[in-house]
Amino acid sequence: MSNIDPLTFPPGFLWGAATASYQIEGAAAVDGRTPSIWDTFSHTPGRTKGGDTGDVACDHYNRYREDVKLMADLGLSSYRFSIAWPRVQPGGRGSINGKGIDFYQRLVDELLGHGITPWVTLYHWDLPQELEDAGGWPARDTAYRFAEYAALVHGALGDRISNWTTLNEPWCSAFLGYASGVHAPGRKHAPDALAATHHLLLGHGLAVQAIRAADPAAKAGITLNLYAISPADPSQEDDLDAVRRIDGLANRIFLDPVLRGAYPEDVRQDLAGVSDFGFVQDGDLEVVSTPLDLLGINYYSRHVVGAPDPDVPAEPYWRASTSWPGSEHVRFHKRPGHPVTDMDWEVDAPGLTETLVRVAREYPAIPLYVTENGAAYVDVPDANGEIADIERAEYFDAHFRACLDAIAQGAPLHGYFAWSLLDNFEWAWGYTKRFGLVAVDYATQTRTLKTSGHRYREVIRRNGLAE
Ligand code: PNW
């Protein structure tokens, strides 16, 4: 895929924006929806910033028409959203809930009516609470329940949707959900995180098979949050080994089983004291590695890691050792003077190029999509109520360039989804972190396109960058 003009994307490049059900929908208890693990978690005191919940969020359930209009104004070619499992199959078992699926029917029709391709994620973290009560992802049965749910949704929407993503970021579901417990369901038992990893991937494979059985032409994939990783000091053996370990737990523990059909041997050894991987049954890895049509990559930042260092300051949760079983002695570093976003994540656009090129070189050929990329910053409206979010606009611009660099180096990148269309419920951070191209005033539910949104519209219009 070589480009004549180095600032132009390949013809047909997909330009999108992404959201997730629990982060935007609200309407948590209407039309038969039952609680998900995120309802339970966010309603448990002390779990989210300020006790924020997704009860109302962006009220997208009631305002989706207005939101689709915003997408059309931006010129999006695609919209990535997720389906709330407890809305369409309350409790995670049994038949489809007509009122719940009807919302997605209306949303999809609205998108298609505006020429926007729906890009569906089946699971963006809102597991029905009943399934968590029955064991959650550490229980093998949840994988079968997920495949059944996938088949139900496909049966209802398969005639109008061709792109299916099974899971969003299983690393977060497994490690933040069951090891460090900073995400729902908030459990803190490292062996469970490994069992959850396997059952998420098994559920993914089973779901792909169910969708393919119903429609051989359906396109199916998974979205992983991948990281560029580098050593604090490349001359130190210990730091290089820390890179190997964190790359193993963040990237390869998902990429290898899904794209190569095996868990990485070194990762299994690192984890020997945590889990014997006894949950892997004969035939599972064939299911997990069911061939895919595409891989979604969510990229935000780089991890810089090294051997333990008593001078390295205390860790924020996503660098906390509890999120990285088997790598407890690794230290995550913050490079002095390096720019960070409001999440305290380092801005590292070359890491996106590196990640895309690495996947293209090291794994079997598969079309790649950036399914999330974006930045939280504190937005300050000016006197006219406009939000001149220059830092976010520059973050996006740098990452568009990183995509072009990856394409120039041969990565088969076919699309890019900005995270996020709207400011929304940022999980454990509640409403305190804003990622939107569109600002949301939660008191009035007023939407305002930010400067980054205006600039994104120009990029989409040109299918490239201005200079
Ligand atoms: C992703 N971490 O979450 C999710 O897919 C989105 O729902 C979310 O809003 C977005 O990125 C921004 O956070 C992540 O701690 C949450 O490493 C936490 C981590 C990574 C991704």
TrEMBL record:
GO terms for cellular component: cytosol. The keyword Hydrolase applies. InterPro entries: GH, GH_1_N_CS, Glyco_hydro_1, Glyco_hydro_1_AS, Glyco_hydro_1_beta-glucosidase. Keywords: Carbohydrate metabolism, Cellulose degradation, Glycosidase, Hydrolase, Polysaccharide degradation. One of its GO terms (biological process) is cellulose catabolic process. GO terms for molecular function: beta-glucosidase activity. The active site is at 169 (proton donor), 372 (nucleophile). The keyword Membrane does not apply. Its EC number is 3.2.1.21. PROSITE patterns: GLYCOSYL_HYDROL_F1_1, GLYCOSYL_HYDROL_F1_2. Substrate binds at residues 23, 124, 168, 300, 419, 426-427. Pfam families: Glyco_hydro_1. It is an enzyme of class 3 (hydrolase). It comes from the Bacteria. NCBIfam families: BGL (TIGR03356). Belongs to the glycosyl hydrolase 1 family. This is Beta-glucosidase. It comes from Dactylosporangium matsuzakiense.
